[in-house]
Amino acid sequence: MRHHKKNRALGRKRGERVALLRSLARSLVLQEGITTTVAKAKELRPFVERMVSMSKKNTLASRRIIDTRMGGSKEVVKKLHEVYGPRYANRAGGYTRIVLLGRIGKRVLEAARIEFVQAEGDKK
Fold this sequence. Notes:
alpha+beta; CATH 3.90.1030.10; 4 helices
């Protein structure tokens, strides 16, 4: 039975799933938006939003925790603390959006784009 098992398995074992989420999160932070499947986007969203909330504190502890959870990617830690932390300083949550794109070719998979929302004072 699946009682209290809220996370999606994504057809992978735990280590593979963690590596996939870290890779997707790094790409999302560095490129500000990626295209993937709906299931992966929905699983990625809370992971990334926790990292952005943590980066708003801008402490040494938050840098170390994010560094560990992102797999030791220094450029991601730097961008989270220097770009996204100040950008969303006055926002309580909801830093990302998922836009459904439709099916991928003739396959059953649904594509989605996950991207960071524009903050109130931002110009894009």
